[in-house]
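> tool_call: predict_assembly(chains=two)
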Amino acid sequence: MFLAVHFTQPPEWRWYILGYFFFAGLAGGCYALGAMLRLFGRPSDESAARLCFLLAFPLLLVCPILLTIDLGQPARFWHMMYDTGAGGPALNFKSWSPMSLGVWGLLVFGVFATISFLEVVALDGRNYPLSGVVSKVVAGGVARLVNVVGTVFALFVAAYTGVLLSVSNQPVWSDTYALGGLFLASGLSGAAALVTLFRRWRSTAAASEEAIAEADGYFALLELAIIAVLFVTLAFAGQLVRAVSAPWFVLWIVAILSLLPPLAGRFRSGVVVSPGGTAALARMGVAANVATAAIVLVGVLALRAAVIWSAQG
Amino acid sequence: MAQAKGFFTDTSVCIGCKACEVACKEWNQLKGDEPHFLADSFDNTGKLDAENWRHVKFIEPSSLTAATTVGDGQAWLMMSDVCKHCQHASCLEVCPTNAIVRTEFDTVFIQQETCNGCRNCISACPYGVIGFSETTGTVHKCTLCYDRLQNDMTPACAKACPTQSIQFGNLTDLQAAADKRLGQLHQVGYSNAQLYGRDNTVYGGLNAFFLLMDKPQVYGLPTGESAALPSRNNVGGYLGGVITAALALIGGMIAIRRRREPRAGETRPPAVEPETQPVGSHAGGGDGR
């Protein structure tokens, strides 16, 4: 790294892109967390794993909608995948352009997220056309294989958005390698928070609450470490002041403070109580969990907003 | 392919008349932005964007280095800025739709029918050349008058320039002319004069290159050290993601595998929230496999 000099103009990526980065991180994070619970966990973790897959699919559905709306010519969204110009007609695939790679990654992840969603719906006993076929075809080893390959793409979708920003000549974004990892760690942490929120409507997933909370602690720790790396690299490039100047420092503070509850272990408040523990104590625990999860999700959003806005002024 | 074409902009003879801006707008039917008082010297154009494909920069003495001082006063630099039509073009590199192409004249061109307005090129262009048009929903920049080139005509800006500050022609001829002009200036004492983009140190060479009277930064141009392609961050960026993914998977695995069982005498808290038709209450909720 060197003291960077930038004369670029901002691409005016604002609210839709912020929304896309947020949902992509959560969708990828949920899928990866679900796969981890299913592959590494106990049989009792299966319910939470299914909850993760159930969440990943609708979260992912929002992503292409936001991306398309953000285009200046939304009806030409398919030009991302098909060259209609002088180089065509041919498929568009530029491995060195994260936006091109990301479009294909999103598409492939969409396939895996859909399969896992349909699998879980079928396993949960909901009837829909072909549900019986799906549950038979995608069962046991096949489902796990789908989860493993799907996780690769889930992690890619959660991370590539940061790389997309870095592969530019914008100040802040292009002055660090940390954004891909940062968005991934943040997405996983947000996914853990989201699963905790939705766990209320799937009581059988409670068995995994402690594990998810502990995993979130690791994700938060990772995110905090990467924020430190980000600040150091930006300082070396002479862009740290720009990144944390007013009013963006408020967003950074929110993002960093949101990591404290999972780090402090408050996520698992009330998980284990003595036989004499009261329902009131448990109720407080639930309220604390919901509040903490909400704080984490706000932090996920604030982090992305800080990165997106500070570079564009 | 036809012979490579380009611009040689000699800023030493630019008088800031803005005829290039007007001619460009006239030929390319650009309305221009709403006029604003920018309080920035004689500049009321501000920057290159979708409506301004030529922009005359006015650089007043406060920005200049001591070497630009001439006689008893200081020089007042002017420069007609434009798309550089880089040999290694950042915009072309990142464009996901392949809307940005290199033409038979070796210039960089945005195909309007293909562009979908993702604006990735704007974040990549190190010169701040490309602008987004709300009217067309696509991005725009100098085409080096592609339509005129196809009809063997000189681009409008070069045609209109009254001082020959903007010269158009075959790239090799322009480079020879630039070398000659630089020699003249050095000979009469303008030691700070330099060519920018004449050789391949900046983005592999620029088809629209400049003779500058001061350092590139003074004109708002990145130096050779700063002039890097966006793809330089691909490996580092993805590597950071892969390392993070590996650590996160390890962390997740530890958390899921290592959790303790409730000790004797401990129980899990009672569920207090209403059970609203749990999703897993049918065939397989929580049964594992």
